[in-house]
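Weekly structure sync, notes
Attendees: PL (lead), two postdocs, one rotation student
Agenda item 3: pending single-chain targets
PL asked that the sequence for the first pending target be pasted directly into the notes so everyone works from the same version. It is reproduced below exactly as submitted, 352 residues in total.
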Amino acid sequence: MTKYYTRACNFYYGELSKKLVKNKKTLPLCGDKEISFDKIEIFSKNKKKVSFKTIDVKKINFLPKLIKIKITKDIKKITSKKKFLSKKKHILMGILNVTPDSFSDGGKYSTSKKAFKRIEEMINSGADIIDIGGESTRPGSKIISPKKEWQRAGNIIKKFKRKFPKTILSIDTRKSLVIENAIKYKADIINDVSCFKFDAMFYRKIKNKNLWKVIHHMQGTPQTMQKNPKYHHVLLDIYDFFEKELDKIKKDKYSNKIVLDPGIGFGKNLKHNLMILNKISIFHSLGFPILIGTSRKKFINQISKNYDSAERLGGSLSSVLFALSQGVQIFRIHNVKEIKQGILVFEALLNK
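Predicted structure, written out during the meeting:
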């Protein structure tokens, strides 16, 4: 049996986009008239064979009946507004690792004083969300006990909403003990890189809770994920994974509060990461907002080679802007002020 997938492509921006949407020549992406498209890429998969073609949106009605039904449903999701925690066009998730061994900033914010100073800096620089993690999940990282993880992050989480009541609190954890405690202190988002698979009790703790849940893709575990990762077709394999996970939680009372993260660098090589980013708009047809975390990742070094830098700011920013141009809304980042500045300038240029 052949399965079909729909990706919006050939985008227009700003005043031109609004004019084209008004004249019904393009369709708005995620309900935003300032970014629209007039073509779709249709992928078809039959067992191991994958093919694709690009057509004008006006030619959808000429497709075979069953394909047309599927594509029409996808288009409805692609063009619908992706509701998240605000009406902003982009949302920045500032990273706070209270760990000694995270790949980029391990040990920098190990005391409460340093951590809260960093949180305040990120909020003042434009962060809408602070994502707090007490265990590193970099390639080859070691697993720590739930108690140890809570010891690292708990004091920050306990005081977070008292100090920053208007800022969204995200918890980066795979442990049910940590998330159960964090919920008591008004956590808003659950960001588990294992997609609730590491800890058998995890999903029970968050099921039917009024929380945003990040569906994150990772092949393998942090200890194994970069040991020759393989896919049949990375883009469609991740899409199928999302569909399967969404189906599992459709009975959750808050199953509409979902964010999709394809997991850049989590069980992917350079080729995989580039394909995901290049065609990331395919995930809009699942109907939920998309989050990406490209900040300071290894793929930037693999591309830039001799031109690599300590914070990889140039590569981080360019990947964010490229994803933004495809309608991605949420960005997990380290350099908040610089990324915010880049996005503001980019949006101003696009919208003229």
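Discussion points:
- The chain has two domains: 3-79, 91-350.
- Residues 91-350 form a domain with the TIM Barrel fold (CATH 3.20.20.20).
Action: rotation student to compare against the earlier draft before next sync.
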